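Sanity check

After download, print the first record. It should look like this:
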Amino acid sequence: MQVAPAIQPRLRTSFAEQPIFARRRPQRCAAASGHSERNRQRKWAQQSSLTEAPETMSKLGQNFNSEGIGFFIQILWGKQELALPHLSVQDIRTINWPALKAAGFKGVVFDKDNTLTRPFALEVEPCLVPGLKLCQETFGNEHIALYSNSAGLHQYDPEGREAEHLESELNIAVLRHKDKKPAGGPEDLEAHFGCPISELVMVGDRYLTDVAFGNRLGMLTVLPQPITKEGEPLGVRMARATENYFVSRWQRCGVKPPQHPLLVSKPAGDNNVPAEASAMAADELVARFTIPLSNPWKPDQ
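Expected structure tokens:
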């Protein structure tokens, strides 16, 4: 069917104008598309902030440890010895793990932040890997566990994602727990290791969390120097300075760590000497349970 000649010029004029509108409509579509893209980016940022909120709260939560504060008040004028470690070392590489096992200890409990890793990191500090490997070779992975106030703590790692990551990286159990050190009982640890709590070694860099926790439950306590001050929350740095001040003061006053039943020095063949009368001296502990480093490493200041 042919179009009437009188109408053809009008249609051609109408079609001739279409390129102008065709150019304008894509511009409007591009503007709308850009607006939609900005909306998508804004929503993504909001979702990301919600996803990162638990991690942020976890780090902020490290500023406050009500259990530690309460325990500090209890020992301030009471049992100061609970805040003193049996052994102080530079880092875990200087611990003589075979000697500890020979002394009768069956397992090792590690703190995480600033003991094995930098604060909130999920990888062992590279220079400490040889010390951890020697511990694993000595006790076996099934007799080593992490007990941290970050990874595995229900309040700050409720889904256990950090704990699972560390377990896959290290092949070491990360114990899930509800109480923040120094609170908590021996039940979970004894159930995991299958031995009395007194046969375990607690290794951690804080006096009023790791050391106090271990001593309160009857473990051998070892305090390594912190890996770094970088990345630590302000509250943790302030608490550490307070701990160092009071522990140094108590040590100058002659306060000693609590006696441990496996840390005895008896004359050969004499099993009747009471442990109270033969507790190892500090220099004997150092000589027996530490090893020198050929290439010393100094923690960051």
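If your output differs, re-run the checksum step. Summary of this record's structure: Confidence is low (pLDDT under 50) at residues 7-17, 20-33, 44-61, 273-277.
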